Amino acid sequence: MISLLQEAATTAAEHTESVASSVAHGETETATGLPQLDLTSFGNQIFWLVVAMVVLYWIVAKVALPRIGAVLSDRQGAITGDLMAAEEFKLKAKEAEAAYDKALADARTEAGKIVAANRADIQKELDAAIAHADAEIAARTAESEGRIRQIRDSADNDAREVARDVTAELVRAFGGVVDQGAVDQAVDSRMKGALQ
Amino acid sequence: MATEAHGEATGLSFHPMDQFIVRPLFGDGDVHWYTPSNVTLWLFAIVLATLALLVLGTRGRAIVPSRSQSMAEMSYGMIHKMVGDIAGKDGLKYFPYIMTLFMFVLFANFLGLLPMAFTVTSHIAVTGFLALAVFLTVTVIGFVKNGAHFLDLFWVRSAPLAIRPVLAVIEVISYFVRPLSLSIRLAGNMIAGHAVIKVFAGFAALILINPGLGALVTPVSILAVVGMYAFEILVAFIQAYVFTILTCVYLKDALHPSH
Amino acid sequence: MEGNIGELGQYIGVGLTAIGMGGAAIGVGNVAGNFLSGALRNPSAAAGQTATLFIGMAFAEALGIFSFLVALLLMFAV
């Protein structure tokens, strides 16, 4: 291989001369031999390759890759962040639903309580009104009974007076002496039986 | 030599190797090591193309990427996954180097496909230097990480003891052939593809010399150029991919030498 | 069609060497075909093995490229 390369280099060198002369004659330059094996150009290629690779390495490793890596991790972060936010929102929605349910139940019990309280109030008022009415009725009844008794008593007394008077007049009319005490006693004993 | 005589009988001129000549960029004269040449031009075109894709393309740093940014991210993701899958987690430390290598070979191959372009990866000097750099780096990493255990790579413990020496010889040879095959594969693919395109393109001129035969040959050769060109675009990518993946494989051998 | 016998031998040699590339083509085709038949049997495992496919193709192809290189050397450098 190496001897081949050397041989190629010498032939290439010969041909460079011939090429140079043909260029001088105004002809177009053509490859004679394999240009890849032209050892005289190796130094040039390798030197510029090293320069270009160093520049390229700097661009790729120090500028491009950190930037792309940062963008990719940012995106990953954004995606996981969004997913977490969505999870949070879901949780919040669940919480809100629970709160709504609780509020509904609370409102229901509150309403029940209010209804019960109102019913109790009304009942109390009703009871009070009924008691008041009962008391009034009792009072009226008592009053009426009192008056009736009064009337009856006064009627008794009147009747007794009348009976005494009539008895006394009768006794007198019959010519008796009126013993007021005996008359009263007789009338009272009779009246007692009649009036009871 | 042979080239001068090619095609002179028919009047066609085939110069498939002309595209690989290293010329000074300014004026004529010898190509010294410091002379800015067409190699220099296209090397820096590669640098600029990488800059455009990886740096300008991602300048938005957008969470929702633009087209160029997603291309940069795709290449990042592809190489990152490749290094992680093949060389392992501890290989990710070398990801910037491998990414640099991939971007260089990829853009060298792609830019070389432009008409009138110079393909730097078609030169043994360039690919040989890259392959030797990979080879030496990987060998040094292997010895630094594993010490003498790196030699387990050649001593196949899973094989019967009797054939281990034979296997060791084969393994050593295949180890030292690596830089050769790595560089020749890339350069050979590039030389072959470009030379074939040039040869087909040379036939396309036949219509100017021999209209009767040319009416038949020229369309066929132009179609062949188009087909080869499409194939070469594929090859350009695949060779960059293969170069990178083999580097990863070698790196894996250096990091985990036991089979 | 004048020329010397050495040039004749050179061209014949180049042509014979180029046959080696045909062998590499067969090899690459073998790799790809076997991969495809395996991948169609077990498509879920195929995606993880594309890297192996390319490595295998690269190795098979490298030998063809070697013969191409020898052909080039014979053609231009001898």
TrEMBL record, chain C:
UniProt-listed Pfam families: ATP-synt_C (PF00137)
Gene Ontology MF terms: lipid binding; proton-transporting ATP synthase activity, rotational mechanism
Site annotation Reversibly protonated during proton transport: residues: E61
Domain of life: Bacteria
Key word Transmembrane present: yes
CDD domains: ATP-synt_Fo_c_ATP5G3
Keywords from the named record: ATP synthesis, Cell membrane, CF(0), Hydrogen ion transport, Ion transport, Lipid-binding, Membrane, Transmembrane, Transmembrane helix, Transport
Span of domain V-ATPase proteolipid subunit C-like: 12-74
Family of the protein in this entry: Belongs to the ATPase C chain family.
Function in brief: Key component of the F(0) channel; it plays a direct role in translocation across the membrane. A homomeric c-ring of between 10-14 subunits forms the central stalk rotor element with the F(1) delta and epsilon subunits. F(1)F(0) ATP synthase produces ATP from ADP in the presence of a proton or sodium gradient. F-type ATPases consist of two structural domains, F(1) containing the extramembraneous catalytic core and F(0) containing the membrane proton channel, linked together by a central stalk and a peripheral stalk. During catalysis, ATP synthesis in the catalytic domain of F(1) is coupled via a rotary mechanism of the central stalk subunits to proton translocation.
NCBIfam families registered for this protein in UniProt: PRK07558.1
Identification of the protein by name: ATP synthase subunit c
Organism annotation: Paracoccus lichenicola
Gene that encodes it: atpE
